[in-house]
């Protein structure tokens, strides 16, 4: 079993929520990225996908918002958060690697997210639950969605930043504020993420195998799990590795490409 000690501070008051500011974010990132902030939208993922379809976005385009009314996670599940309480953004990249490798990008995004969080607060010990959950302890603090669009991939990220216990969408969720995270400034979290992703993405583009980094920070690999498939069927097994394309490999040699993972005790 994985054992981590975590700083936990349960707050009854709402943590400070500095507004998103594209100029503040842009000062801290390379010119590869172009960040747009919108006050309210249906979904940053839908907005950016439409821009790509209209050929109005190129690699490095980022949209983030204070509030989205129709946010969604993986398998089209609803993702909702009170205004300014979460960091919600989507970005577009055009990989040069073979398209069969693109499905590793959600895992690379998760790595970038937890590297960013530990850069800002080294005492935090986030892990990754395959395929797209960011965990602190057993609580989900963030999630990732990805879809091919145009000549690349639109990737959406949601991280619960300033949410109080009462604002959490489900009992299995948590937030950075509830773990006494060192900074709740979403501008700083986003700029740190973009810089981190850019570095890892370039290494991946150059052909580097980054699976060892993922395995070291996976809460799934090495554990007995149950895979719950969209059709209602399920299978138990032990997760032992991931493929270069991001598929989960079980001890019996089978591969998992889609499904909900339940960690078995």
TrEMBL record:
Domain BPL/LPL catalytic: 24-205
Keyword terms: Ligase
Entry GO MF terms: biotin--[biotin carboxyl-carrier protein] ligase activity
Top-level lineage group: Bacteria
UniProt GO cellular component terms: cytoplasm
UniProt-listed SUPFAM superfamilies: Class II aaRS and biotin synthetases
CDD domains with a match to the protein in the record: BPL
InterPro entries for this protein: aa-tRNA-synth_II/BPL/LPL, Biotin_CoA_COase_ligase, BPL_LPL_catalytic
Keyword Ligase set for record: yes
Signal peptide residues on this chain, from the entry's feature table: none
Record protein name field: BirA family transcriptional regulator, biotin operon repressor / biotin-[acetyl-CoA-carboxylase] ligase
Organism: Candidatus Planktophila sulfonica
């Amino acid at each position: 079993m994985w054992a981590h000690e975590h700083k936990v501070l349960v707050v009854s008051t709402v943590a400070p929520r500095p507004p998103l500011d594209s100029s503040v974010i842009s000062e801290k990132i390379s010119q590869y990225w172009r960040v747009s902030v919108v006050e309210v939208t249906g979904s940053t993922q839908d907005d950016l996908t439409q821009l790509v379809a209209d050929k109005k976005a190129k690699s490095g385009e980022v949209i983030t918002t204070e509030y989205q009314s129709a946010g969604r996670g993986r398998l089209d599940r609803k993702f909702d958060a009170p205004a300014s309480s979460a960091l919600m953004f989507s970005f577009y990249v055009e990989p040069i690697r073979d398209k069969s490798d693109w499905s590793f990008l959600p895992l690379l995004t998760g790595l970038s997210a937890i590297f960013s969080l530990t850069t800002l607060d080294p005492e935090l010990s986030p892990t990754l639950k395959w395929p797209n959950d960011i965990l602190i302890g057993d609580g989900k603090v963030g999630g990732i969605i990805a879809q091919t669009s145009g000549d690349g991939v639109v990737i959406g990220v949601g991280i619960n930043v300033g949410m109080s216990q009462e604002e959490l969408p489900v009992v299995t969720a948590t937030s950075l504020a509830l773990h006494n995270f060192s900074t709740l400034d979403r501008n700083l979290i986003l700029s740190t993420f973009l810089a981190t992703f850019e570095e890892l993405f370039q290494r991946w583009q150059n052909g580097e195998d980054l699976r060892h980094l993922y395995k070291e920070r996976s809460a799934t690999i090495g554990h007995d799990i149950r895979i719950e498939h969209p059709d209602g069927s399920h299978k138990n097994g032990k997760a032992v590795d991931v493929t270069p394309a991001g598929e989960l490999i079980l001890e019996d040699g089978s591969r998992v490409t889609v499904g909900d993972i339940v960690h078995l005790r």
